Amino acid sequence: MIIQKLAVSVIAICVAAPAMAFDTVTWNWDANVVSTVTTDAVSDVVVAPTGLEQVESEQTTLGDFAATSTSNLISNNIASLSGLALDDVIAVETTSTALGNSAALESDVSMQFDMKQTYGGFDLSLGTGLTGTLTDVSLPGVLAASSITTGIVNGTVDSGATAIANNLTADLVTTSGSDAFLIGNNIPTAFAAATASSLVDGVAFTDITGLGTLVDPAVSSVSTAVGNNLGVTIDGIN
What is the pLDDT of residues 207-236, one digit of tens each? Predict the structure, then answer.
């Protein structure tokens, strides 16, 4: 490595004499760097699994999907009580999910999977969904999930909306060290417009003691829109 460096440093100090300005600052930097990295990795695994879960799946979905969940005007206002305890609070859950393709794999022995998920819309020339490939599709598929919760008295709210074109989860929880491996191939393709919305409005609490000790939020509103989602969990020996 050859490095040539020239630096000029100036420090200005305030004194009674007239101040001096920078006249010239020159910085030259020349660097020639040659790097060589060689990595060899050899892995030899010998196992005797007690079992095998092997899955091959091809999913094709074409079209539009919408899911809507609504909870309105729920009152837990008991007039005959002078005060309500935390145990008297109701729990309101409003959930909507719009899915194109979905698969969930679970196993306690070694797992191998080969998955293909394809989601799209319609062919305008035919006006109907096709069963072919995405090259036949001229419009994206529409996924819409909506969750609405309004007008809740003395109740916690958990509102959630989820729109996913392609979803795959694989969960491996083994009981043997020889089964603690997973081999998978997943090809997801999404031609989609996915939207998710969650609305919570008009939540009121009256005469409730102990609200500050709630473990979960008094109001939770979550929306999620995803094209392709893959979740893999591998747990060791249990």
Answer: 777 777 777 778 889 998 888 888 988 876
Q: Where do runs of H (alpha helix) occur along the chain?
A: none
Task: Give Cβ neighbours of residue 100 (< 8 Å, ≥ 6 apart).
Answer: 61, 65, 117, 119, 141, 143, 164, 165, 166, 190, 192
Cα–Cα dist 225/198, whole Å: 11
Give all strands of the β-sheet with 90-107 in edge-to-edge order. Answer: 90-107, 155-173, 219-235
Residues 6+ positions from 228 with CB-CB distance below 8 Å: 117, 165, 166, 167, 188, 189, 190
Amino acid at 207: D
Tens digit of each residue's pLDDT (9 = 90 or more) over 9-45: 333 333 344 444 556 667 777 778 788 888 888 877 7
* Model pTM above 0.85: no
